[in-house]
Write a structure and sequence with these properties.
heterotetramer, A: alpha/beta, Rossmann fold, Hypothetical Protein Tm841, Chain: A,domain 3, six-stranded mixed sheet, 14 strands, B: mainly alpha, Serine Threonine Protein Phosphatase 5, Tetratricopeptide repeat, two-stranded antiparallel ribbon, 71% helix, binds adenosine-5'-diphosphate, binds magnesium ion, transferase (chains A, C), ATP-binding (chains A, C)
Chain lengths: 333, 219, 333, 219
């Protein structure tokens, strides 16, 4: 697959160079580790530090979400690979204001091991670190093993909730509670139509027939739970929604935030057609859409397809969703 | 068998070479059940190790120190799942080699047994989960057995590699329970685990190095 | 090529339904014509109406830019086809506050004819309409026939300038002057790596070899000025930049706004690698990047590739670039 | 030759059929030098026209009124480049047919000449620009000539279609100067213009209709 890149081994570092140049009013690279990106603005004294992160190739996640009302820092990994402990630790030290730091990332073996190692090292430096792992992907494990689930697009809601809570001045314990609540109330399911490819191999992450789709795929091109014939958008939306609603039943009168997330190459046109169906189905069930997000929030390079995320809201979560944010790749007034 | 620090470093470079040669194949295996980067990740990690061996570690004679630097280098070059796993292995290995500038059979046995067990301590995988542990666990067992029976290290390591190979092959018929591929459930059947495969390449490249030196000594 | 759609003939209407549902706090559909989308907020009395538009398939352009500090309304065409006069006229009537309306759109035969017809009809209803056509695409005609050039991604700067000017309270004449100035100071050149396809045919808009790129392509998949071997990102960026700089010479000390625009399926990773080179080249020449935009601003469905836009700034244009905007698909604080 | 409103409407439906049949081919031509939608656009427009003919215009006998509604329907269904062009053509044509419920040779001559010229008034294309005008201009010229020479309409229209066909084919060797394809310069050479092609299909489908009716009358 074709790429507009130079040396495949340098893509992440060159991308970061461009990113920091483009958004120097928002972010800066730590001199200690160029894979450590932190906010370039004064945040309130004593604010809990919010660190999100993971592999590269998911932009706007993660560096695009550094900013007021969202994350304070991001350690950056190679393509689809957790960052090692060093940049995580450097970010942690840079964003800690004495009130502790929360780590938020998708529940993948690599991320868990690296962030845990970093947390141990941070504690040696007397920084309190708490972790909330995002587990929104209903396709990645059954409800009975919910703690094994992976984090995909719904992570956006969890990062946003924690970022807002920290910006509001909540304590680390409270930020952790709210991030967990956001995660517990969030479910995502995705579908892929076309593969992505990592720059070094340029090989498609999977092969799909001209008339096939892959349901429940991972956000790194990991194969999904089922391969089937490509269906009309409404049927696909129903399929994804039904799985989510079976996993997290909603009642008439419930309020949700909705995210229809493009995986990289799916035109906005198609995302809005998917959203249309989501809004129809929820309306039929008497579920209120409190806020909608349609676009690219967590991508997989140039993968084609999308995911649907619902976050069930109570008063508290609704307030966090509404809280403004000002980041290089996401601004909410 | 007695291995000097220089030879130990050469053996690590041979491992790096093997990984480089098998890079495409390893990514191919990972594409089938994971995110397709395993060859890339291993290559980045081992290249960084070679770079370190040729620079900062060029004059280093302490094998324990070498292992410690290798661990950190590999880890910080790749992160990922394999970074912490192999970093832990080399850190555990470094402890038994601390201060040693040449390694005898006893050292080598202890090094590989500790390193291998480090993988399990970090990753908490069980045999049958379809991970690199399915290669490493039987290899470690073979080493322990040979060690107890007083076999020389080369003999023991030959058995370890053979057991590791069996273990690697057995992952083909497993349903994944750890790592990215675990989401696949039944669909992971029929595909050999990439991490199990690269772990076997590491073991077999080290053996190859020993055999080659042995050959030279015999001449 | 695969699509997440239902009936190909209904894509635009279903997309609009989803869009208006998702962003009802920003936009509404006129009862007179469902292809007429206008702002759903109170704007200042006597504000000049800003109407932008064109075919569908370019999201965020055009409906994504309806909002405070940007456009007041958008008539929506079929995929890659100018809207007819009717929805343009309805939008015009809805957004006019007695001070006139400016039409801004890319300089394409279809758009020119349809918007001109609408302008005639609007004048019959005593609405003063002025038009500024975007002509930023340096590849589409030589400098000697600059008025024949097409409008592509640089339109974003023109819309933003006009939208800001109108929001600031300028008169129609002044908004027109500033929009023209923005257009005169804006140059874009693009490159495509992979084609898009319109929903009804699903046929790739062009065929490119596994190692080819198309330089200077149009934003509807029209073939470009030259086809060549795919080069590393830095060389591609140089090629695009050199063409722009030959056309609009810049001097040491000049200030520019930069837009690196993805055409639909190009990962952000690659856009930032392109931006990195742009910033290097401009730094070497002593040209200051005053503001940067990197992302998807004007797309062509799932086309792969990107464009580079420079807008040369003076005090006045810099102020317009800085002016905040709050739209469904673009927020600037 | 005398054509009633119903027949006139049927002729328009036959045009719509022809466009539907050639839809893929027209988009194919547009993919080569434009944005690939010409067949789609023409099909949307003509389908909307047929829909109107079968509903609002079902009872309409005034050919001028029919043309006016057809113009607006086509325009509002498609926008695009061809919307204003064909809408203007039908509006110009509607003027000469105002109040007429059946059309004689004179009416038909005037209709097609006015309609054809409307295209040029709206689009300002010159012959040689590689547009639909390259088909329509020679067709209009042929019609004017036949009309002056007092030839019956069918004879004149046969000549117009033949001239239009020549014109259409000539676009293959032209460098585009109008519309999307003009950005291509020399690269537009060798490709027949999609708009010129569909214009020819419109003319030839109308002729086909006349020939068929003529045939029936002769029987
Ligand atoms: N907990 C674990 N214990 C042991 N090995 C593991 C564990 N998790 C993953 N692995 C190994 O890691 C391999 C994948 O490595 P790699 O592709 O480099 O990392 P990632 O999964 O982060 O992309 C798997 O094939 C598996 O053998
Ligand atoms: N100014 C013009 N005068 C006459 N015909 C034109 C003009 N501009 C474009 N055309 C015709 O329109 C055709 C393209 O139509 P279509 O593909 O439907 O519209 P668009 O270019 O908006 O996609 C061209 O092939 C050409 O024949
Ligand atoms: Mg990975
Ligand atoms: Mg992997
Ligand atoms: Mg078009
Ligand atoms: Mg066209």
């Amino acid at each position: 697959m074709k790429k507009l890149i130079n040396n495949p081994e340098l893509v992440v570092d060159e991308m970061l160079e461009g990113f920091v140049k483009a958004h120097s009013q928002y972010v800066r690279q730590l001199p200690e580790n160029k894979r450590s990106i932190v906010i370039n603005r004064e945040t309130r004294p004593g604010k809990v530090g919010v660190v999100i992160g993971g592999g590269s190739g998911h932009k706007p996640a993660f560096i695009g979400y550094i900013g007021e009302g969202l994350a304070d820092g991001v350690p950056v990994g190679n393509i689809f690979a957790s960052p090692p402990p060093d940049p995580i630790l450097e970010v942690t030290k840079a964003v800690d204001k004495g009130t502790g730091v929360i780590y938020l990332y998708g529940n993948y073996a690599g991320d868990c091991m690296n962030f845990d190692m970093a947390a141990e090292l941070a504690e040696l430096e007397n920084i309190r670190v708490e972790t909330v792992r995002v587990t929104d992907d209903v396709a990645s494990a059954p409800n009975s093993e919910i703690e094994k689930r992976r984090g995909i697009a719904g992570g956006f809601f969890v990062y946003k909730a924690a970022g807002a809570a920290a910006a509001m001045g909540h304590s680390l314990d409270e930020v952790v509670r709210l991030a967990k609540k956001a995660n517990d109330n969030t479910r995502t399911m995705g579908v892929a139509l076309t593969p992505c490819s990592i720059p070094q191999t340029r090989k498609p992450s999977f092969e799909l027939g001209e008339n096939e789709m892959e349901i429940g795929l991972g956000v790194h091109g990991e194969p999904g739970v089922e391969r089937g014939e490509l269906k009309p958008a409404d049927e696909v939306a129903d399929r994804l929604l039904n799985t989510i609603l079976a996993d997290m039943p909603l009642e008439k009168g419930d309020r949700v935030a909705v995210l229809v997330n493009g995986l990289g190459s799916t035109p906005y046109l198609e995302l809005y057609i998917m959203f249309r169906r989501v809004s129809q189905v929820l309306a039929e069930k008497g579920i209120e859409i409190y806020r909608s997000y349609v676009g690219e929030y967590v991508t997989s390079l140039e993968m084609g397809g999308c995911s649907i995320t619902l976050m069930k809201l109570d008063e508290e979560l609704a307030q966090l969703v509404d809280y403004p944010a000002d980041c290089p790749m996401f601004v909410q007034k | 068998m007695l291995i000097k620090a220089d030879s130990f470093k050469q053996a690590l470079k041979d491992i790096a070479n093997k990984i480089e040669v098998e890079k495409e194949y390893l990514s191919e295996l990972d594409r089938a059940i994971g995110d397709g980067d395993h060859g890339v990740t291993m290559s980045i990690g081992w290249k960084a190790v070679v770079e370190k061996l040729n620079t900062d570690l060029k004059e280093e004679e302490d094998c324990g120190e070498i292992c410690k630097v290798v661990a950190k280098t590999f880890l910080n070059a790749v992160g990922s799942s394999v970074g912490p796993l192999y970093a832990t292995a080399f850190l555990r290995g470094s402890k038994v080699l601390q201060g040693k500038t040449e390694l005898n059979d006893e050292d080598l046995y202890k090094f590989w047994i500790s390193a291998g067990k480090g993988i399990q301590e970090r990753g908490k995988a069980e045999v049958g989960d379809k991970t690199m542990w399915d290669t490493i666990s039987p290899a470690v067992q073979a080493l322990e057995q040979s060690y107890e029976q007083g076999e020389d290290f080369l003999t023991g390591f030959r058995k370890a590699v053979a057991s590791g190979e069996e273990g690697m092959k057995s992952t083909k018929d497993m349903i994944s329970k750890k790592g990215r591929s675990s989401r696949l459930g039944e669909r992971s059947l029929g595909n050999q685990d990439p991490g199990a495969t690269s772990a076997y390449f590491i073991l077999s490249a080290f053996l190859q190095y020993l055999e080659n030196t042995q050959l030279k000594h015999n001449v």
